[in-house]
Amino acid sequence: MTELQGALAPAGISLDQSLERDLGIGSLERVELLLRLEQAFGVRLTDAAMMEAESPRDLARAILTAGPGAPERVPAPVAPLAAVLMITLIVASIIGAGRQEIIAAGPRLIVAVFLLHSGGFLLGYVLSRLVGGHEIASRTISIEVGMQNSGLGVVLARQNFASPLFAIPSAISSLFHSLIASALAALWRRTASRYATRPEVTVIG
């Protein structure tokens, strides 16, 4: 988990900390973590076990009860792509299963989800700038706020509601925040060099 988060990793990790709230393990990080755990322990973990795990203790239980396996090692450069593909398949399966309900809801559902994430990206940037945040930091906060985890929403919907329809908004949400964040990242990358921090030079004498 420390490797996935880098400098953002907490100083200590306990077995009962929340993967989402305390450790910041989102949908993509969960998939990459699944791949790493399978490689490290030589087991096969189901997607359901990984998405439903709420703490490191749950992950440990999943590993202990998992069937044996010998997954092929996924090269480091390929792991992010594999994670994206797996998340895409999960989202596609939920959207595909609820296509009739999505069509019936019409633009209301699509517009509501789009406005939710657009507001997150906008408020993250504007509020950060208002309190004196650096341009690059404000852009980073904007993307972090706008890309709130939809995978957790899917898991909670499945755990707390009998109807699978409650997971549809979270699945669509995952699609929208990924598209918006990708567009913003591509746009902001073009002007990032203007705000690069230059080292300060102190003249003595």
Known CATH architecture of the largest domain = Orthogonal Bundle
CATH class of the largest domain: Mainly Alpha
Biggest sheet record: 2 strands, antiparallel
Average pLDDT metric? 77
**Radius of gyration over all CA atoms, rounded:** 20 Å
Query: How is the quaternary structure best described?
Result: single chain
Taken from the alpha-carbon principal axes, the silhouette is globular
CATH homologous superfamily heading of the largest domain? ACP-like
- Secondary structure tally, helices: 10
Structural class: mainly alpha
Distance between the termini: 49 Å
Taken as a percent bin, the fraction of beta residues is under 5%
The proportion of residues forming helix, as a percent range, comes to: 55-70%
Low-confidence segments:
4-9, 198-205
Count of separate structural domains: 2
Q: What is the string of helix and strand elements?
A: HHEHHEHHHHHH
